[in-house]
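Q: Sequence in, structure out?
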Amino acid sequence: MLEIDGALGEGGGQILRSALSLSMCLAKPFKIINIRAARKKPGLRPQHLLAVHAAASISHASVEGAIPGAQELVFQPQGIFPGHYDFSIGTAGSTTLVLQTVLPALMLAHASSELTLEGGTHNPLAPPFEFLAQAFLPLLNRMGPCVSATLERPGFFPKGGGRFHVDIQPTSKLKPLILLERGRIMQVRAEILLSHLPEHIAQREHAVISEALPIAEDDVNIRIDHSALGPGNVVTVMVRSEHVTEVFTGIGERGVPAEVVATKLVQAVKHYLHSGIPVGPYLADQLLLPIALAGAGSFLTSRPSLHTLSNMSVIKQFMGTNFSLREVRPDAWQIDLTT
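A: Exactly. Output:
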């Protein structure tokens, strides 16, 4: 049985999620030790446990060690079983990371699936819903499946309770993805989401974004949504280019001024605009696994993070494939799948 060291590289939950995804797609059982060894609270937390349980549900897996705080786990899948599934974390843990775990298997299944996920939809250390729907899924759909996501209500820390639905029409084989050019920038737009908070917060964020970015007044939208169970604030900037849409997000936090949230976001967007690269660092992480499953692909991104390198290592352990990294110009790196 394949053994994965969860302390590898950045030592976080992504190692477990990638291992679960690959295990299901390749029908390879595995044991993971030192789960989330590099985190302040190591071991399985609620969102990681839900990822395990979700993976076990769609693969009818035999699982050992799926308890809170566990640092070792054995996972043995029995196949891929598409269908209708509801997954609820019960906390504000990230629902998008749970989807990230089960999506690769379901998009290669023999029939369609419908998922409902409940928990956090906009988390500081996870892909927010808008990134999923507008940046990642369109690229994934370019590779063959048809996956759509619809947000019913947002969920923020600490209340959670967000909910979204996903429809997955699978493909028998993924097509390679080549993304080496961004092309002409077609539009830069922003959305400020506010729930159960004073509207002046959104106005202050609006002022920072409008002044700092090349964005038309009509392309900054303030959306008030009180359907969430608790207060929340999200600032999202979408950069739509000829060949890719990138999404950047700032999450409001208690005690952090609105201007600081917006300014940090603006800095990330400006860096991307000036770099000329098509793929930002978070999207780079998301693309590795589908490209590996496709058997070919390449993209241009910024200097690979430790998170990205760790993901590459897990993929290599399961599949024996490598990614080559080459700096083609300052802070522009080409990543290619090699055999």
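The mean pLDDT is 95.
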